[in-house]
Each structure stands twice: as C-alpha cells, then as structure tokens.
Design a protein that fits this description.
- By secondary structure, this protein is α+β, with helices and mostly antiparallel strands.
- It has helices spanning about 1-20, 65-70, 100-110, 120-125, 125-150, 165-180, 265-275, 280-285, 285-310, 315-330, 345-350, 370-375, 475-485, 555-569; strands at about 45-50, 60, 80-85, 115-120, 160-165, 185-190, 215, 225, 230-235, 250-255, 340, 360-365, 380-385, 395-405, 415, 420-425, 430-435, 440-445, 445-455, 460-470, 510-520, 525-530, 535-540, 545-550.
- It has 2 domains: about 1-385, Rossmann fold, CATH 3.40.50; about 395-475 and about 505-569, PLAT/LH2 domain (Lipoxygenase-1, Sandwich), CATH 2.60.60.
- The chain is built from 14 helices and 24 strands.
- Strands 2-1-4-3-5-6-7-10-13-11-12 form an 11-stranded mixed β-sheet, sandwiched between helices.
- Strand 3, helix 3 and strand 4 (about 115-120) form a beta-alpha-beta unit.
- The two termini are about 55 Å apart.
- This is Endothelial lipase-like.
- InterPro entries: AB_hydrolase_fold, Lipase, PLAT/LH2_dom, PLAT/LH2_dom_sf, TAG_lipase.
- Keywords: Secreted, Signal.
C-alpha cells in the first residue's frame, strides 16, 4: 500500500499532464439528454447528519436520482443543501478532508442538508478518462437537482456545490446543465489545471456562468509552464496541479495562489522522516489540498465570529446582519479570512490593496454583500496571506514609511538598500521583527509601501519600532573612527581646505525617517506614528527607532472615531 502511494505521488503531475496532452481528454459539451444519464460506474450520495462521528459516512442513497430514499435519509426540503464533490482519486477511498468539511458545514446550522457525492469508481481511472467521465457525472448531478425540485419544490437556487480539484469542474458541469445560472452557489477548491487551463469553450470547465455566485480558491497554481517536461512550474515543490486562471465571480489567491506556508521542500523532507514514504504522498498534495483546509477553517472562523457577537443562527437574523454591514461599507469582519481586491500578487505584497470601500474586500466562504447584477458584471481577484496551519488567519497591516531628504550614504548617491524590520505594539499584543520586503533602494524624500501580517489581532496600535538589521561594514567602522580624529588637510600648495570633514564615501549609511503610517486591513483603521518632536529621526545600521502615535489632528477624523469605538470594547 505504501509503495503504491509513493509511486502515485511521484508520478502524479507527469501522469496528469501526459493524459491531458495525449488526446484522452475530449473537448465539447456533454451530448447526454435529460433522460440519458447512464454512467460506466456507480455514483451515489451519502447524507451526513449532525452529531455523527467524523468517520461515519452517513445515510446512503445508492441511486443519485432516488428522491424517495433521499427523503428517508432526512433530506429537509425547506433548508439549504450542500453537495461536496471529491476530485480525481489515486485510490478508491474518500479523502480524509471530507469528514471535517462536512462537520464544519453542519455546524453552521444543523438543519442544513449536507451531502457527499461518491463517484470513486469513475474518479479512480486514468486522469484523462476521469475527465471525460466527470462531464457525465456533472450531468447526473443536474438531473438530481431537477428531480428534487420537481418532487419537493426545493429549487436549484438552494443548492451550494463544493468541488475540490476535478470535482470543482464537475460542479461547473452540473451548473452548466441546470442552466441559466440557477444553481445558488458553487465553491471551487483549487480546480484542476491539466486539461482545463486553456479550455476555450463555454461549459468546458468551471465558470462564473454556472451559478448565481461562483467563488474559487487557488492554492497550487503555476507561474510558468514547462511543456517539454509536461509540468507546470511555480509551487514550492516545483510543479502545480491547480488552475491559475480566474474562473468565478470571486477568485481568492491565498499567498499568491502558488506557494503555501508549510508546504516547502524542508517540510516535505520532515514529513518523510516522520511518516516514511507515506509522508511523500502527503507532501505532494500539500498545496493542492490546502484549499480545502482553508475553506473549512473559514467556515469555523465565521461560526466563531457569529458566536462572539451573539448572533442567532436563523436566516432572518443573518439577512439583518448583512444589511447592517452593507450600510457600514464593510464586506468582512476582523475575525474571518478576508481577501482584498488587487490587480496582482506583487501589488498586494507591496501593501497597495487593503481597502474595503466599494466592495473591495470579501470574507472567504461568506455570502457576498454585492447585488446579483454587480456580482455578474464585476468579477474580482482577491488576495490574502495565511499561516501554515489551521485556522490560517492572519491580520494584514499596510505600512508606509515616509523618508525625508538630506541624508548621507555610501558613495553619496542618496540611495540606500537596508534590511528593515518593524514591530507593532497594540492594546491586545505585539508583533515584532516583521520584515519589510524591499524591492530596490530607498531614495530621499520618498514614501515606500509594505505589507506585514500578524497571526493574532493587535488591537488599537499605540507605537511602532523600526529597526535596521544589517551588520556594520568596514566602511561604517572607518567612518566612525574618522569622526573621532581631528583630520585636517593643511594649507599651502599641497594642502586643501583646513578642517574639511573628509570625502563623502566615508560617511556611514543612514536613513532619515519622518513618519510611519499603518492601516489595519481588517478594521480599516489608519494610524500615524511620529517622533516626540514631530521631526525626522535618524536610523543607522543595527539601530532601532521608536515612533509614537501622532496627534489626533494628523489622523483622519473617521479613523479617530473608529479608534475610540475600538477602545471601548
């Protein structure tokens, strides 16, 4: 068994890529009629119930369109329904993530219908064959949805399809065949890339037309392609399985969508040392499966956030809460995983995209606050950072460092390339030695933008420390000695100007910091930090400066009111 897992994990990407390129995957929509849903294998549904053990598969519905058996299993036609769809499988076994995800769904409201689609007999074939079968499975789901609607008046708009990898496209095929975007919602968890990355025709992969609201989470995507190797490059481990293209109304890219914390080569080696060869299989799917774990955590964080604010869990109260938050202009609370609208991962990492105004942020896994028309006409790409383990939540802070002029630097060029670190201190805690990732040099009279994050909320910020982490150079040491010796060049024919301070290249590097501005992305509160005399302060290598909150007059009135409300909590 372990040898089999190891072989599959090593050959996973090559097998998938070759299958996609060999012509095994046919293009074009399914030609099945409404009545013809014959499949070359068994497809069934398991109905999960509240309180059951995570390993309990639930009540079995052997035939996917058997509405009578579905009702015997406790299907509630007046409640919303979730259908969890697994992807291509190397072994005919449900993945371990299925149980925790279904339990998280049931925890939202026990009366929800939570179903798991079992198409393992079809999904455990060669990848190319599984892709062809996936289209037929999607058609079968569409017939099931329509059959339930005919018998129970449980409309398509009450269905939320959640598909992982190839299962995400199965959900898309189902929505496409139901038609008209009538399916209420589809969540695609790192949709499979091979065979779908460049699919040009409607209905050929998950797309925003398949449901009223389509959200997609990308965690294992490619930055570039290596066709000669049959590999997509860009992840921590050198290949990718997910699709890079934006497919939905809201596409989330945690950590840029291609490198996930805790899934690098060092952790892969540690997994092999701890678990043996099985650890290699776990590492191979680490980034791909991270999408499922992030989505599951988003559900649990949302539940915790509601409990914290003492909200009842009926739909009427939820609608009131959505209306209240619309009026405030916020799309997400501070306790949930929040994505921010941005043009690229680079711009996000530079701290340029942390606004929630104009519906520019969205809680992952949450209902959109936008109107249906706005959703369909304005698809969004949203970025966020996460930690390496559940609950994955971080708090984002935009940092702007304002530099003044008239500093001396090595060579007298007015440019410095320091290694800066920032420490934030707030009413709820501190985050120290956060690196400010700098692209290029700092120049005089400029402002540089950064993004930092903390795994815990810091509350109301009251001071920051800015440090320059670089060991002094020999030039710095010589420059310091130069200032201690009364150098004079003398006078006369061979002399210069008496008392001259010496050549500028002997001056040590330094920065003149005028102000630091910080904006909390989760609370949207902005802070300004200054020196005690509100003038610039000098920062040298291996030194640190402390900046305190500027007078309230230096901060926008709206942010002053927000800070006062935060202090009262």
């Amino acid at each position: 068994m372990r040898v089999t897992w190891w072989c599959y994990s090593c050959m996973l990407v090559v097998v998938v890529s070759r299958a996609a390129a060999s012509g095994n995957v046919t293009a074009g929509p399914s030609i099945l009629s409404h009545e013809d849903i014959s499949l070359p294998g068994h497809v069934s549904v398991w109905v999960r119930t509240e309180g059951a053990d995570v390993e309990d598969p639930g009540c079995h519905v052997p035939h996917i369109t058997d509405v009578t058996q579905l009702r015997r299993c406790g299907f509630n036609s007046s409640a919303r329904s979730f259908l969890v769809i697994h992807g291509w499988s190397m072994m005919p076994l449900l993945d371990t993530w299925v149980g925790p995800l279904t339990q998280a769904l049931l925890a939202q409201r026990p009366r929800y219908n939570v179903l798991v689609l079992d198409w393992l007999e079809l999904a455990s074939a060669r990848y190319g064959e599984a892709v062809k079968r996936a289209r037929r499975v999607g058609r079968a789901i569409a017939v099931m949805v329509e059959s339930v609607e005919e018998v129970t008046d449980h409309g398509a708009e009450r269905w939320h399809l959640i598909g992982y990898s190839l299962g995400a496209h199965v959900a898309g095929f189902a929505g496409h065949h139901v038609g008209g975007g009538r399916i209420g919602r589809i969540t695609g968890l790192d949709p499979a890339g091979p065979s779908f990355e460049t699919s040009p025709w409607p209905g050929g992969r998950l797309s925003r037309g398949d449901a009223s609201h389509v959200e997609v989470v990308h965690t294992h995507t490619a930055l570039g392609l290596a066709p000669s190797l049959g590999l997509s490059l860009g992840s921590n481990l050198g290949f990718s399985i997910g699709i890079r293209a934006a497919l939905g109304h809201d596409d989330f890219y945690p950590n840029g969508g291609y490198t996930q914390p805790g899934c690098d080569l060092d952790n892969a080696i540690a997994s092999v040392q701890r678990m043996g060869i099985v650890g290699l299989a776990e590492s191979a799917k680490c980034e791909h499966e991270r999408s499922v774990h992030i989505f599951t955590s988003s559900l649990l964080l949302r539940l915790s956030h509601h409990h914290h604010h003492d909200h009842d869990h009926d739909e009427e109260v939820e609608e009131e809460e959505l209306t209240r938050r619309r009026s405030r202009g916020l799309s997400s609370g501070g306790g949930v995983l929040t994505g921010f609208l941005c043009s690229s991962a680079q711009a996000f990492d530079e701290g340029r995209c942390v606004s929630c105004s104009g519906r520019r942020c969205q809680g992952l896994g949450q209902r959109s606050l936008r109107s249906a028309r706005h959703v369909s006409q304005n698809p969004r790409t949203l970025f966020l950072r996460t930690t390496s383990s559940a609950p994955f939540k971080v708090y984002h802070y935009q940092v702007r460092v304002h530099l003044s002029g008239h500093w001396a630097s090595v060579g007298g060029s007015g440019e410095v390339t320091p290694s800066l670190r920032l420490s934030l201190h707030g009413s709820l805690g501190s985050a120290v030695n956060l690196p400010l990732n700098l692209n290029g040099s700092l120049v005089e009279n400029s402002t540089r933008w950064f993004l930092v994050d903390s795994p815990h909320a810091l509350g109301d910020l009251h001071r920051v420390h800015l440090a320059w982490h670089r060991p002094p150079t020999w030039t710095d040491l010589w420059a310091q000695l130069y200032t201690l010796v009364p150098w004079e060049s003398g006078s006369g024919e061979e002399g210069g100007q008496a008392g001259r301070a010496g050549p500028t290249y002997l001056h040590p590097q330094r920065l003149m910091v005028r102000k630091v501005r910080v904006k909390s992305a989760e609370t949207q509160i902005r802070y300004a930090f200054c020196t005690r005399d509100y003038l610039h302060v000098e920062l040298r290598p291996e030194a640190e400066v402390t900046l305190h909150a500027c007078p309230e007059g230096w901060v926008h009135k709206r942010d002053v009111l927000r800070m006062r409300r935060l202090r009262k909590r």
